[in-house]
Design a protein that fits this description.
By secondary structure, this protein is mostly beta strands. The chain contains 1 helix and 11 strands. It has one helix at about 110-115, and strands spanning about 5, 10-15, 20-25, 35-40, 45-55, 60, 70-75, 80-85, 95-100, 120, 125-130. The strands form 2 sheets. Strands 2, 4, 5, 6, 9, 10 and 11 form a 7-stranded mixed β-sheet that branches.
């Protein structure tokens, strides 16, 4: 059974940094997976934040986080990370990771497919104070 567990969320001041982790069990990152990071703020639609492919590390970033967030994986421990820098109050949300097989580079279409048919974690809340 595939399980994803996110951690690393919390309260941070604007301009600060957090690193989220997504530990996967029931599979190995040695295979070809796409891992997506999504967020949902209260009263807002879910947003695709970033994605990464375990096979080659190729990445996708949403326009709102480009240049500030960095996705990575440690395949040896089946863990994906999202390093979030220069955080802004509008980054406040519950952050989720999702995973499914990869069929190529991670694109917005990959993210949409993950949103519809991926394995999901339980989420970790991030609050950025001004």
């Amino acid at each position: 059974e595939v399980q994803l567990v996110e951690s690393g969320g919390g309260l941070v001041q604007a301009g600060g940094s957090l690193r989220l982790s997504c530990v996967a069990s029931g599979l190995t990152f040695d295979d070809d997976y796409a891992i997506g990071w999504f967020r949902q703020a209260p009263g807002k639609e879910r947003e695709a934040v970033s994605g990464i492919r375990t096979r080659d590390g190729s990445t996708y970033y949403g326009d709102s986080v480009k240049g500030r967030f960095v996705a990575s994986t440690d395949n040896a421990v089946n863990t994906a990370y999202l390093q979030m820098n220069s955080l802004e109050p509008q980054d406040t949300a519950v952050y989720y990771c999702a995973l499914n097989q990869a069929f190529g580079p991670v694109t917005i279409w990959t993210m949409r497919a993950l949103a519809d048919a991926g394995f999901w974690g339980q989420g970790t809340p991030v609050t950025v104070s001004s």
